[in-house]
């Protein structure tokens, strides 16, 4: 039992060290699809401690260790050309294919 706890603790520490730091990019640099406005953005470390996010990722077949960047929750597209705004966190994500519920591989953008 103690070995399992030590192993899980070491694995989570490794994930924390491997998490990339987010930096804001201009919205025009988003080449993976429309800029998203997400109500919540989490690091992989934060997602690892959130059973709800882990369950959603598991349902769509995403392995947390394979995710680079941030994870966006409850996202919707922003029309930048139309002067779109975002009251939460504007991000550019590599995978927006989950109907706005969850987006992975996100990086913050400046509108």
From TrEMBL:
Q: Where in the cell is it found?
A: Secreted, Cell wall
Instruction: State where it is primarily located.
Output: secreted
Q: Which UniProt keywords apply?
A: Cell wall, Disulfide bond, Secreted, Signal
Signal peptide per UniProt: 1-18
Q: Which GO terms describe its molecular function?
A: structural constituent of cell wall
Q: Which GO terms describe its cellular component?
A: fungal-type cell wall
Instruction: Indicate yes or no for the key word tRNA-binding.
Output: no
Q: Which InterPro entries does the UniProt entry name for this protein? A: Class_I_Hydrophobin (IPR001338)
Subunit structure, briefly?
Self-assembles to form functional amyloid fibrils called rodlets. Self-assembly into fibrillar rodlets occurs spontaneously at hydrophobic:hydrophilic interfaces and the rodlets further associate laterally to form amphipathic monolayers.
Q: Which family does it belong to?
A: Belongs to the fungal hydrophobin family.
Q: What is this protein called?
A: Hydrophobin
